[in-house]
Amino acid sequence: PLCAANIDNEWIPSCPTHLKPVVGIKFDTLQQGISFYENYARLSGFNTHLYSTKKRKSDGKISLKYCVCNKEGFRETPRLQSNCKKKRPITRMGCNARITLKLINDQDNYIIFSFHEGHTHPLTTPNSSHHTK
Length: 133
What we know:
The protein has one helix and seven strands; from the N terminus they run E-E-E-H-E-E-E-E. It is of the alpha+beta class and 133 residues long. Strand 6 and strand 7 form a beta hairpin.
């Protein structure tokens, strides 16, 4: 994918519009929404992970699910260990790219409640996409 930095120094993926998440898109199941975002991420040049879940107290159903870029947040500073021979590379870059899926109360469907598409890091190109998960 070809990417361009915008005025906020965020990388915006270049992707066909019909594959791009839009607030309000409806899915029959939570897994369909997650798969949709994972497909978009793969085509756009980044990986995802499931970040957080909120459940309703009344019936235990998942009411909100957050899917984020795998470079979201920052790694905690590791404790000093004398037996540590190899330092782990820095993989987290504070990326804000995410999608929030929300349960529709009167149905068992989910909608895209929020979507942030800007990344704080360059995305992979088609030639180097085989290095991603």
